[in-house]
Design goal:
15 strands, 5 helices
Length: 189
């Protein structure tokens, strides 16, 4: 996909997922989540080309500017959106699918010191509430909603709702809307 098309796709995804978004120019200039994603694409390319130090340096500069830390080794899908973003951390071996939404303070982190896959795999269409922590080499199935401040340390099937510490899964009810789930007080702690 061409660079310009990818930018337009990101802007449309932000407009779709953020009810406060008023216009494309505002989104392009004022959304640090998008700035972090755009920068990540550059640093990820350098990382894959073997330019590890410049990629890490660039990702740290992006962290200082946006408050969002995405390791250049992380694999991020299309139409990924970070709403507000401050305090988001995405580890080196994390894999994030398409159409994923993260709110501020989310961690996709590790639990072990050994090498290899240490961070989570997030399926397509997943929404993760503010402050949630998804830890370890686990898989979160597509279209899952993770409640605010949940701590997830186990795999979750597709279409799950994860809440609590430690997070417990339940199946999504017919017609349940992800945005509504993430704003309901019973899905946060």
């Amino acid at each position: 996909m061409a660079f310009g098309s990818r930018i337009r796709e990101d802007l449309a995804a932000a407009k779709l997922r953020d009810p406060a978004a008023r216009g494309t120019l505002e989104i392009a200039l004022l959304y640090p989540g998008l700035h972090a994603i755009w920068a990540h694409r550059v640093w990820h390319r350098l990382w894959r080309a073997g330019w590890r130090f410049p990629a890490r340096l660039g990702s740290q500069v992006t962290r200082w500017v946006t408050g969002i830390e995405i390791h250049p080794g992380a694999v991020i899908g299309r139409r990924f959106f970070i709403d507000h973003g401050m305090g988001v951390v995405i580890g080196e071996t994390a894999e994030v699918g398409d159409d994923v939404l993260l709110y501020h303070g989310v961690t996709l982190g590790g639990r072990q010191r050994e090498g290899g896959k240490r961070h989570p795999t997030i399926g397509d269409g997943v929404a993760v509430g503010a402050g949630a922590k998804i830890l370890g080499p686990i898989t979160i199935g597509a279209r899952t909603a993770v409640g605010a401040n949940a701590v997830v340390t186990r795999d979750a099937a597709e279409d799950s709702v994860l809440v609590g510490v430690p997070a417990r899964a339940r199946a999504r009810r017919t017609g349940e809307d992800t945005r509504a789930l993430l704003t309901a007080p019973e899905y946060s702690i």
